[in-house]
């Protein structure tokens, strides 16, 4: 495997980004930083140079999917066989990429048709390890990775830390840029699943990752709290994804119910309640009328 790591940045914490790049640089054969118009772009440029990484910068925020696709183009042109996607705050443990590579090779030899493999991350705000998710008819199962040693199939895995063969990306296609942010990785995994490719989590490749800036409690579950604008994108994209033919039934029901839960939770338990309500209402309207891309000011 010839792996290119693609790290996407947008106004990153510079000290944290330095640790992200340092941790991944020795584990891959190439590194590219795609900056989405950060206010501290000069600092990002300095870190990229220090990490011997190629920098692709933009004067504006193109969204996570567009940035990932720009990294994908570099991988194609550079003769890489795989890409490893990274957020600006995901620090890989030593040997994590080797773990993913070995497990991916084994899975491909055993069954073929692997879309992606990613680590079993621990969410720092909630302190909970991620689980695998599988749909069967109207039922959505959440599967614990505790005690597992072999990769576990999951309908989707988050983008950060995921290792993806370029051959699969060529057949399935890249990431949907009109979604801009939120559920971009979920949509791609569903599309790959419909094309016959499965995604996996490696329970032996752990990493710490932070979703949002905190959590609020929804019943027995912890829900990540993002800045209000993310409520718009999540609701808009979720309702769109619920209408796609390749989205499994259980996930369609999940997205609809989750949007209703968000309307109740974020407008009563989170900060900036009125702003969140306006943004989610607009997200519903834009999803139904087909208005995608970045939200206009």
TrEMBL record:
The keyword Membrane does not apply. Keywords: Glycosyltransferase, Transferase. It holds the Pfam family Glycos_transf_2. It comes from the Bacteria. Residues 7-134 form the Glycosyltransferase 2-like domain. Belongs to the glycosyltransferase 2 family. This is Glycosyltransferase family 2 protein. It comes from Microvirga splendida.
């Amino acid at each position: 495997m010839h792996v290119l790591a693609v790290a996407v940045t947008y106004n990153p914490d510079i000290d944290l980004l330095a640790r992200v790049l340092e941790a991944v640089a020795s584990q891959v054969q190439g590194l590219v930083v795609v900056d989405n118009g950060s206010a501290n772009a000069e600092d990002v440029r300095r870190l990229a140079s220090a990490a011997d990484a190629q920098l692709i910068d933009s004067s504006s925020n193109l969204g996570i999917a567009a940035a990932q696709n720009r990294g994908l183009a570099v991988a194609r042109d550079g003769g890489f066989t795989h890409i490893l996607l990274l957020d600006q705050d995901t620090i890989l443990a030593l040997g994590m990429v080797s773990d993913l590579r070995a497990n991916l090779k084994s899975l491909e030899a055993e069954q073929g048709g692997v879309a992606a493999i990613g680590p079993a991350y621990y969410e720092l705000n909630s302190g909970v390890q991620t689980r695998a998710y599988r749909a069967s008819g109207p039922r959505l199962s959440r599967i614990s990775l505790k005690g597992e040693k072999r990769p576990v199939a999951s309908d989707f895995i988050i983008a950060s830390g995921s290792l993806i063969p370029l051959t699969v990306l060529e057949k399935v296609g890249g990431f949907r840029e009109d979604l801009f942010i939120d559920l971009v990785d979920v949509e791609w995994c569903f599309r790959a699943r419909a094309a016959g490719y499965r995604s996996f989590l490696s329970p032996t490749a752990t990493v710490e990752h932070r979703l949002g800036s905190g959590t609020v409690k929804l019943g027995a579950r912890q829900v990540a709290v993002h800045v209000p604008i993310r409520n718009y994108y999540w609701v808009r994209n979720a309702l769109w994804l619920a209408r796609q033919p390749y989205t499994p039934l259980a996930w369609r029901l999940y997205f609809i119910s989750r949007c209703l839960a968000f309307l109740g939770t974020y407008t009563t338990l989170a900060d900036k309640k009125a702003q969140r309500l306006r943004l989610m209402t607009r997200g519903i309207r834009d999803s139904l009328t087909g208005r995608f891309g970045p939200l206009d000011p």
